[in-house]
Design brief:
Blueprint: H1 18-39, H2 42-49, H3 54-60, H4 63-71, H5 79-87, H6 92-108, H7 113-121, H8 125-147, H9 152-172, H10 183-199
Length: about 200
Amino acid sequence: MPDTDGTARRRGRRPAGADTRAALLTAAREVFAEQGFSGATVRTIAARAGVDAAMVNHWFGGKQGLFAATINLPAAEELPEIVARILDDSTPDQVAERVIGAFVTVWDASEGQFAALVRSVSSQEAAASMMRDFLTTQVLGQITARLGVDRPKLRATLAASQMIGLGMVRYVLLLEPLASAPVAAVVAAVAPTLDRYLTGEIAG
């Protein structure tokens, strides 16, 4: 069909501009959430985005780089502020509530990104590495260090096990009633366990 100026409207793939990058991210979030890292292919993602598959390499350097971009984990320079928001102006017994509230609020709004990450952890080392580094080193490790508790690394990994388990049940397995519970209800139910991992007595 001609445009108003009489020229034919071009059909086909998107041009290689910034809108292509955005389209790839949108399509990749959907495909990774549906199929995980191993099942998703560059060709499938590009086709859903309506772009040439070569654009994945152009914008992201390949499927792994595209996956990392879709997960959209905070950059390293943002993490001190995240940790500070959780710790500042709170007593130790409030930290667990703030951790869970922050994580669940972000995950609820993540459009399947956390589910895609969890599905891919078992089969893709890049996904596992991102999860390990973000939870145990960049966030929970920093929190236990700032709290000055004994065995901070053990506490960080125990806390990570709680958060990953919560994420698996709420976003991947979709087990009710936890999957649709309000954030406040999740915080109230889970915080006591996380609090023990972070600041309570741990035998052994």
